[in-house]
Amino acid sequence: MVMRAPRRLMLRTESPLQMVDITDQVAGAVRAAALEDGMANLFCPHTSCGLAVTEDEEGHHADLAAVLEELAPAGRAWAHDDLERRWQNIEPGERRNGWSHIRGLLATTPSLVVPVAGGELALGRWQRVFLVELDGPRPARTVVVQAWGAPRRR
To answer: pTM to 2 decimals?
Structure first.
């Protein structure tokens, strides 16, 4: 069993809520790891975006956006955004984005593990891997991909 050095995918987002299909980039990182069988661990080190495995279908993405707005509306008052009350983790020019953190907890995960079989991601027929942007646009989002398993047979 081998563990390959992690690869960082750097992504730019263009919209406040955006589904970024990163399947091909993750598959490229897995192919570069030269594994026959194993696992690919993906990690997103952000709290206002995350990862999901789902379909690449516009209606589905629109439905997700609508449900997230119902559950965590951007126009609602959020304690996270009350900088007179909040004292933790504040940076200069702090963005008002309480809804995006709640949406991240509801709809995404910071990490995924995807099986690798025959050197390829073992996803289902309609499954794709997405970075789900919840507080965009952002100039740089990161996804770390680390693969481990049995090396490719020569």
So the answer is: 0.94
Across 22-30, average pLDDT: 98
Residue 154 placed within a domain: no
CB 60 within 8 A of CB 66: no
- Domain membership of residue 56 as a residue range: 2-74+97-149
By percentage, how much of the chain surpasses pLDDT 90?
91
Neighbouring-strand partners of residue 43: 111, 144
Confidence of residue 104 (pLDDT cuts 50, 70, 90): very high
* CATH number, domain with residue 26: 2.60.120.460
Within-domain flag for 47: yes
Tokens describing residue 20 = 């970024």
Task: Say how many domains are in the chain.
Answer: 1
Q: Give me the chain's average pLDDT, please.
A: 96
